[in-house]
Amino acid sequence: MHSSIKPYSYLALRLPSETLKIVQLVPNAVISIGKYGTFQANHLLGRPYNLTYEIVDDIKSQQHGGLRVVPASELHAEVLADGTATPTVEGEEDRPETGEEYEVVGEDGEVIMRTNRQTIDDPTSQKMTFEEIEALKKEGSGAGKDLIAKLLSSHSAIDQKTAFSLAKYTLRKTRKYARRFTVLPLDIPLFTEWLLAEKEPMRSLDLRDELIGLIGSWANIRCSASEPQVLEDGISKVGGGRWLVVDETGGLIVAAMAERLGILYPPEEDDSDSDSESEEPENPAPTTTAAATGNSASTTATQEAINDDVDMTAPEPAEAPSASAPASAPAPSRQPHHHHHHHPVPQSATRNTLTLLHANAQPNLSLLKYFLFDASTPSPSHPLHDHLKMLSWLQLLSPEDDNGYTEPERVPDDIIKTWKSGKRGTYFRKRRRWERIRAVVDETRAGGFDGLIVASVMNPVTILQHTLPLLRGAAQVVVYSPTVEPLTELADCFSTARRTAFVTMQAEATMDDQSISKDDFPINPTLLLAPSIQTSRVREYQVLPGRTHPLMTSRGNSEGYVFTGTRVLPAEGKVEARGKNKRRKLVGERSSETPA
Amino acid sequence: MATTDPPLSFLDPGDTAQAQSIAILHLKRDLLMPTRLQEQDELNEGYDEGKVTNTRFGSFPHSTLIGQSWGSQIRASAVDTGSRGRRPKNDKKRKRDEDENTDSNAPTPKTAVAASTGFVHLLPPTPETWTSSLPHRTQVVYTPDYSYILHRLRVRPGTVLIEAGAGSGSFTHASARAVYDGLPGDEVKAEGASSKKKQKKGKIYSYEFHEQRVGKLKTELYEHGLDGLVEITHRDVCNEGFMVRKTESSDLNAKKNDEPKAEAIFLDLPAPWLALRHLTRNSMSSKFLDAAAGSSNPQSPAPGGDLPPPAPTSAPEGDLSFHSPLNPKATIRICTFSPCMEQVQRTISTMRQLGWVEIEMVEVQHKRLEVRRERVGLHEEGLRGVTAMPASVDEAVSRLREVEGRFRSFHGKNTGADGSEDASGANATESKEGTPASTPATYVSKQQRQQSIRDSLADRKVFKEGRLVHRTEPEIRTHTSYLVFALLPREWTAEDEARCQKKWPIKEPRQPAKNKDQKARSGKDIEVDAGGRDVTQETQAANGQPISRRQMKKLERAKAKNAEREKEKAAESEQAATEPTVEDAGAAKADAAGKNVEEPESMVE
Predict the structure, then answer these.
(1) pLDDT tens track for B519-529
(2) What is the residue extent of each domain of chain A?
């Protein structure tokens, strides 16, 4: 995965200004990174990620000279040079003649640090004018390095600068004029960084990497190698790596969890091994990927129709392909794109699946386009095509009220034969759609999920009311919220006091559930074990020789909280905790010995 | 999987708890007890019920646990723990041994009888529950740290990870879950050794220099069914490197098989900078490595910095005997975990010299919150876990009035016996009629008041009362360690570049006129683009054109692009102005595809 840059993939460029820019690498296109210059996509295709390039095009001769890889030694040059002559290095021999500028002096007269006491705050100390800089930029050779050197040399007070401020000045000028960029693979950590820094973070509920990490870990997301176990009734299933997801971040949670399940990235052909040795898979790759990502409306639509049609004529569910591990899925590039027979039915995978519950008629998964997945016209070669299942809350709670769940009229075969192909196609497409929806809805309603992950603006109490019963025993529940209040309310539904009251009432009620009011107990508090809320934030440091400290500023906004708990199966009948004081039980609170 | 192998309880626990699998008995929050479920009591502890786990909430014979659904609430059993101890132990054991020899080698355990109180929840093990219940041998890498580290290291199903300093094994378990995509070896059985290469499976190569810890971890990993996924080696990696086996043979192919070919590295070592020398793509001269490892702040030696200088690897540049433990075709990501700043500084300095880039240092600050209902008010007087102070100014004033009235009546100022007010403290909303004139004649003692509060408690729903508040839990880990992240890009040679240039040829250079246009346009975009935002959209905005014309412009461009492709062969100079940027091409493509989902730009608008 991400071993080399593939055509039509989305990737991120980190510019000298530290901003991220996401581009799609369309072969032969020209990529513009604004003032830093332009280059051709073909300069990057097939190359590895994480290299830093310099645009070496010579503007004077109007030639696109291409890109030059900047080696690590050059990237670290300043710091490495600095490290040997760091200002904190003690000793007389380092002291230059202008010793009077050293201000912080130790007891024995030893110079410790140079200060800015002598510097004069003068905005005119840079002697180069704007016009001169612009002219130099036009000449621009050497990827801005000449310009930066010129700028430094024409600064009148450069010798007054302390080593630190000189480094800062150089860095500032480098950020402005260097024509470098780093190519980064678009994976979840980078995507999150981009969403937070460049997009509207509230759209993705301010999710940060540390919180996504916590969500994934506590949800116990893992690749499952075995099929779900079918219970005695023959319908209900348990496990198999099936997770229930409520994602209102535009698809970020789905993408992050899919990454952990190994179903986010389309399989790459011979990722690591034969890539460099064999040269033959040149042509098929770009064409099919183009088709897969939907190059033109008409073809995609007809593909879908054909696909549906073909699937219908072969009624047995395509279990076999979906059962194979995602990593070993057939390489899509080998197949001409109009042969979709072998592709599994959409949303039909039996394990390692994410089942998305959405509040609108269509799910909002717009962010998944960066991972080459389009929820409305999914490409069959994408693992999410059959591993991501989607249904609305209406379909979950009251499927009879949903048109998609009602069976379309069945027509005898001999009548269908008389139809025109267009009408026949529509008929089969409708049947296929209904079968798909019915399968997903029935499977979801049967429950047995391995976990629940929620990142939603809806009240989490109402979500858990309906989803908690769908989870298997020991399933993990993880609810993310940008603010803490919805989660404290949720945790309060499972408070020890409430649970104790519930258990007592349940024992007294004897088969009469009516006396236990939904108002007092919105969710059965005995279904969730050890509810807890946590938050995490990383603090970033600058580590430079003699200049190590936390960053001066960072992003604020929502803190972000994660609620976790474990779905449990309460024992039948009344269960009394041990070590409980009779009198205190009468008081009905603070049952501290209750296993929680 | 052979029947003797313990089940893969961490990764695939199944529906019910099986014998031999690890189970976590959840006693209460932060009190978890791992136990290995056994049908037979191998230690012969002498319980009538067979193997029994005793907790502070009761005794749990394993016969009551095996076969139960995971997540079940399990009642404690009435187990005779007392008389067992009184019996002479040796006698008992000998007797048992005899029994086993003579009988069918399996004494049928007594059926457990449920106790009246006490229960636990039966949970399958997860890296999280294991981390909070494992036997501590070293400082543990906790969930907030390892979840972030694995996320940042891009550890996913199929990743090969090197972990040095396995310690207590918490990170080992978490990373095993992350890389798991089937056990290595499974595919060999299925498809033969020839296809092994293609079926790359995730794996952990774990190293630990403390022999006893290695032994314990090996046993644990075997019991947890993870021994196929984690290969643990007793090794001081700082001196001896990361090759899996130290093959002495000169056979290069044999050596090749010993290369872990890792893509991700986690170093939890006292001196990670010493291990970095073994994590290079090519052999480096030992002189350079020593210089690299020894450099940086000589006046601030880090803990562990006193390690003896490593033996020179004696590998001259370009030596064929050098084998890199890294995957040559992948970006390598590393994380080092060091509690001290001095360690961080030396590590980063060494990383810079060895060519690691994107070096970043962070610390994870994590806290858990406590949610409770804060009940304040005089009507709570005498109860537990509440604040029996006035909840409001009104309440304070009425209480003061009451006290004042009592004071007056005590001093005989009270004239009449017509005081009708109920002075029960439970009545928080005392009326203002409580003037001195109508002070209560019937004095209610503190005891009486509190008794009436307690009596009324049964009818109250205290779990809904009070204000819902949250606060940080009493103890927080303010510092665990500093995390240094860095990466090593794939090596890119001139030959690689030549191959790629052949595969993706660059089109002819652009015409001068056109480039000027382009320059002029991008000149306008300077601010916009430095902000990293969408160029096309911003340009339109700058031109004062309404955004709604976007679609039209896009279509135009798409047409122009097609036209341009045809014309390009003829090398016209006219088409220059319509040269598509990537956004344009992408937008045109999306447009043509007729997607009815929103564009990403419009999504954020």
Answers:
(1) 334 333 333 33
(2) 1-90+101-186, 219-293+303-447
